[in-house]
Amino acid sequence: MAGSVLLSPVPPVKTGRSTNRATTEAPWVKWLLIGLASLVLIWLLILPLVIVLMEALKQGWGVYIAALTEPDAWSALKLTLLVAAITVPLNTIFGVAAAWVITKFQFKGKGLLITLIDLPFSISPVVGGLIFVLVFGSNGWFGPWLAEHDIKIIFALPGIVIATLFITFPFVARELIPLMEDQGTREEEAAVTLGASGWRIFWSVTLPNIKWGLLYGIILCNARAMGEFGAVSVVSGHIRGETNTLPLHVEILYNEYQFSASFAVASLLLILALATLLLKSWLGHKAVAEKA
């Protein structure tokens, strides 16, 4: 018919299983991948944890309790908690300040600051500890001056704290930087136009938006502080009952063939790690529930 518009037929939309062939796999492939992932998880994570607990209780509860209550073990536990109590708040303050500066302001040297924050991730902890020995040791740059003023850093608590600070300081900042970049600066700018001060903006606007990421970074920082071995091993001097943290105490017991005692102390670190994991999972669920 003249003047009419010829419409081409619309091809039928295919429905059913054939439309998902590009995005699905055969059932046997799915179960094979799940099985392989489960085997790796059991072999690398679950089995070592079970072995630690079995070896710790191999000679009975009496030996287990004795290993945890001996003076050297208590000293190592108290030192571990003390180091974590010092380093985690300091790294929290640094991480929040660094993330705030990097995400809210434009300035020269921002890339260099981010690189310095990531530096402990690219350096071996042992090398990090050696750096502080070369700086603060008796033959280091400041060694003679420290000895002259009777200030002891290496093979003492200050050296352990400094080494742990170096190893753990990226965690809080690295958790907050992507989060604060994603949030942008619109809310802070709106608060400025309303006359809010810098501290008021931080406490009322920024902190509520980053609280879950901040807590997550604090948990990771605390876990690394309590479990750090390499850098602390270099700067501690392995003085039994004085500068040994829990990981170092485990090594000493194992080297002395006190296997049950070493696994008992290791189980204490395992309990702390599991508590950290549960707290991290709980915070993750809380953050998801709050967003929903």
Question: Topology of this protein?
Answer:
Elements: H1 27-56, H2 61-69, H3 71-104, H4 110-122, H5 125-136, H6 143-148, H7 157-168, H8 170-183, H9 186-193, H10 198-227, H11 230-236, H12 246-255, H13 259-291
Helix pairs in contact: 1-13, 2-13, 3-7, 3-8, 3-10, 5-7, 5-11, 7-10, 7-11, 8-10, 9-10, 10-13, 12-13
Structural summary, described in words:
This protein is mostly helical. The chain folds into two domains: 28-57; 60-290, MetI-like (MetI-like fold). The chain is 75% helix and 0% strand. It has 13 helices and no strands. It has helices spanning 27-56, 61-69, 71-104, 110-122, 125-136, 143-148, 157-168, 170-183, 186-193, 198-227, 230-236, 246-255, 259-291. Helix 8 runs antiparallel to helix 10. The longest helix has 34 residues, at 71-104. 28% of the residues are buried. The model is unreliable at 1-8 (pLDDT under 50).
* Tally of individual helices: 13
Helix content: over 70%
Q: Compute the gyration radius: what is it? A: 27 Å
CATH class of the largest domain: Mainly Alpha
User: Tell me about the biggest sheet?
Assistant: none
The rough form would be described as globular
Question: How many domain modules?
Answer: 2
